[in-house]
Structures
1.
Amino acid sequence: MEKEIIEDSNVAEEEIPSLPDPVPTADLNVQPQEQPLSPKDEQPVIVIRGLTKSFHDHDVLRGVDLYVNKGENLVILGKSGTGKSVLIKCLVRLEWPDSGTISILGQDLDALNYAEMNALRLRVGFLFQNAALYDSMTVRENLAFPLRQHKKNMTKEKKDALILEMLDNVGLVDSIDQLPSKLSGGQSKRIGLARTLILRPEIMLYDEPTTGLDTGTGKEIIELISKMKKKYNISSITITHDMSCAKMTADRIILLKDGIVYAEGSYEDLEKSGDEWIRSFFNF
Ligand SMILES: Nc1ncnc2c1ncn2[C@@H]1O[C@H](COP(=O)(O)OP(=O)(O)O)[C@@H](O)[C@H]1O
Ligand SMILES: [Mg+2]
């Protein structure tokens, strides 16, 4: 049902831009920080400061700070149950943090009203761990669904062309009239990706994109994600247990431990860290 929350928006419809424009600096209300947020002085598309989240007396997130630069894929590693999914759900308000700030594409989430939040959600795609297609709809109808909800003014011709473009991206044009039950796990994942990308999000959140897939199929999904990142200049966060996924996709990695960002660096740096706990992720 999580999917519905994201798609169920009553935001004014507009045409899909051909490609996202760079975020104008003037529109960004990210406050100057004492410490530079990003080593390269790039304007981050996501900034999280001091995020906390508890469930009853269970402190899951205890002050998470992170940023994602434009065009960058940030990989989040951490043991199971450390709050990785909770963290990225906070970005689209599927979870509400207890404290801390989140800024996405220059907008502070706390300052947004309902309609503004829904508008922002359309710019952020989310591929859930167990993303399900609508069983009773064909592949074509599954892809048409977000367009029908969010692009009401788009002509049928344009919608049909977009559906074909997205199916072509994921190599499944021939499956257009099939029902999801006829698709393999890898094919379903591809269609799930196509359905999310059809709204041209500028940011993608991937929760365990290769979990449940065999190694070869997982690699195909990783390659597809990388291809889409380049084609549409997508910035992203990827949660994964799959170290080959981390190695192939990460521009930068952070490790979550005990509710905070315990370490940060490139795959190569972290792999040879002096910290045994950090290194344990890389001995696979
Ligand atoms: N809605 C919820 N209610 C209570 N506890 C939750 C809820 N969502 C997540 N948790 C707990 O928060 C912790 C972090 O969960 P999660 O973010 O899913 O971990 P992971 O790092 O494996 O993605 C877990 O202990 C989980 O049981
Ligand atoms: Mg998770």
2.
Amino acid sequence: MPPTTAVILRDLHRLRRHAKNLKDEIDRLPKMLQAQQGKVKRQEDALKQTQEKITKLKLAAKDKEGRLKQTHDNLAKYQKQLDTVANKKEMDALQVELAHGKESNRKLEEEIFAAMEETEQLTAKLPELNQAVAQAKSELANFDQIQQEKRAALTGELNKAEAELKEVETGLPEDLKAMYMRLVSQRGEDAMSEVNGRTCVACYTEITAQMYNNLLMGSYVPCRNCGRVLYLPE
Ligand SMILES: [Zn+2]
């Protein structure tokens, strides 16, 4: 005995939902890979920022060392001039310059020391940051591998479901098949709905006794409210 229309529609609905779930799962794969790639990017950025900061600190320290040498030279010059000053006014002016130069020196030395200290601290972090990049890259490679296997498995399952779907569709009565094809082309797996008792489970609209009888006879019966092809449960 060939399967009844209800059995066929039930099967088709199950297969279409299954295929839809598989497609959705396949569609989600690139996004998951992107998230994983984002992790690598974040670690690489953290490393790069630290490296750039170290470079800037070194440049700033070098610049300040140059200025420090200049103030040292100036101080030596003023010191020498102290021996040859002609009057108190010149002496006072030189003392001011000397005090000013010493203060500049002290500040520059402090700044250079702070920059060196920060450079050292940041440099100490580099191995850990490099390690984090390597770790994220390795995780990405691993993830990519697993995902490729998953994609292959899902695609295989999808192909199987679609082949089975085509096979089952050939069993539909010709008149019903045309309506079914038109509906699924528009609404996909959402083109069908089971009847629970006397109610369309998709939109909770009741069906008439006449519709129920038609379902029993295996006719094409659309829900009066939502238009889905109805079928009886097991
Ligand atoms: Zn309905």
